[in-house]
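TOPIC: backbone geometry
CONTENTS: sequence, C-alpha cells:
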Amino acid sequence: MNMNQMNNVKKQGGFTLIELMIVVAIIGILAMIALPAYQTYTAKAGYSEVVSSAGPAKTAVEVCVQTGIPADCSTIAAQAGWSQSPLVTSVAITGAAGGPYTITVVPTAGVRSGVAVTDTYVAVGTVANGTTTWDTTTGGCVATNLC
C-alpha cells in the first residue's frame, strides 16, 4: 500500500459523546414510563389474592340462595380458611333476608406495596329467580384501580 492509499482509508471511531448522551436520555425516559407501570402491575397482581378470597363466600351465598339453607344467607359465618392469605385481614357477609348480600374483603396493610387497608373489595349480590348476580363496582379498590 502506498502513501496515497493509506490517506484514503477511513479510520472508524466509537460513538461521540453526544450520541452516548442521547442514548442515556432515551433510556431514562423509558425507565420513567416503565417503573410506575410495573409498580401498578405488581400491586394488581398482589390484589388478586384479595379478590380470590371472596370466591368461597360468594359460593356459600349462591348455595344458600339456591337451597334456602339457612333461610337468611347473611347469617353465614365467615370460615377460617376464607382469610388464610397473608394479604387478607377479613372476609364478611352482610345483608338482609332475601338479599342483596354484601361480601367485604379487607386487605392487610403493609404486606404488598401499593395495597392499603382502605382498598376493600366489595361484591354486592342481587338475588333474582334463585340466582345471584354480583356487582363489584363499589369498594375502595375501584378508586385505586386495583379491581
